[in-house]
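Pipeline run #58 for the internal structure catalog. This entry was flagged by the ingest filter as a single-chain record with no existing model, so it goes straight to prediction. Upstream metadata was stripped on purpose; only the residue string is passed forward. Reviewer on rotation: M.T. Logging verbosity set to normal.
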Amino acid sequence: SEMCIRDRVSTQSTGLIEIHIYLTAKISKDEMARIHAKSDRDGRDAVTGLKTRTHYGRPDWGAIFDKACVDHPGDTIGVFFCGPAAVSKILYATSREKTFNNPTGNKFVYLKENF
């Protein structure tokens, strides 16, 4: 039977949810240095306030999916996305391609949210 996420979070200490945040806007080196300095002081990301660090620049989707396969072999992995349609199409295509072409037997389930 399926457990709700809240129940799984309380029974598993790590690995249930991984968040990857990318800031793709152009930022000056000075602004990036200020952001990193603030993040280092309080242990939280200065952009989001989360413990997860923000990545700067465009994501390498293939590498991210490949790492997920290595870190979670054989698992079904949910890919949740909210953002532009062009990126959604890329993530959907990558989810399908990596489901059918990975040596670890992973399945990627793509879900999107539009506001």
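catalog note: Confidence is low (pLDDT under 50) at residues 1-13.
catalog note: The longest helix spans residues 85-100.
status: ready for reviewer M.T.
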